[in-house]
Design goal:
Elements: H1 2-6, E1 8-9, E2 12-13, E3 17-26, E4 29-35, E5 44-45, E6 48-50, H2 57-69, E7 72-87, E8 93-108, E9 117-124, H3 125-128, H4 139-146
Parallel strand pairs: 3-8
Antiparallel strand pairs: 1-2, 3-4, 3-6, 4-5, 4-9, 7-8
Length: about 150
């Protein structure tokens, strides 16, 4: 019963929302965007967003990458899936996102922050690992995996 109460929000159940993150690596750098909206406003992470009805995971990753950064890339493979559980001060579940991390390769185009991004930049792994850089959950782990470290 407690589990059901935690999943209730404004009279309705909180349902998992499928979304993608586009993990793009070029040389010794990974592409990160700085979020302009909550959750994680101001934090650096991989470009991404919700999967649209009728859209495949790979199509969503390519679209979100283009919308947030202006870049095109080929979706290569799924790296992992990450549960993001957002709770209020009383531990009640507010949001549940299932982020499917998709490795994208061969980026092309001109990098420019757009849509949900304040900024977009290429970061070397040592820059991503720097504790002074505010990153979203699992960014460092995913960057290491994508870069083969």
């Amino acid at each position: 019963m407690a589990e059901k109460q935690q999943q209730t929000q404004q009279g309705g159940a909180v349902r998992p929302v499928p979304a993608v993150i586009s993990v793009v690596v070029k040389g010794d750098s990974a592409l990160l965007v700085q979020r302009s909206k909550s959750p994680n406003k101001g934090f650096w992470g991989f470009p991404g967003g919700r999967i649209e009805p009728g859209e495949t995971v790979h199509e969503a990753a390519v679209r979100e990458l283009r919308e947030e950064t202006g870049l095109n890339a080929a979706a290569e493979r799924v790296l992992t899936a990450i549960d993001v559980l957002d709770r209020d001060a009383g531990a009640a579940l507010k949001h549940h996102f299932v982020l499917i991390a998709v490795l994208c390769c061969e980026p092309s185009g001109t990098l420019a922050a757009a849509s949900d991004a304040l900024d977009a930049r290429w970061f070397r792994l040592d820059e991503i690992e720097n504790p002074a850089l505010a990153t979203s959950a699992r960014v460092i782990d995913l960057a290491r995996e994508a870069m083969g470290s």
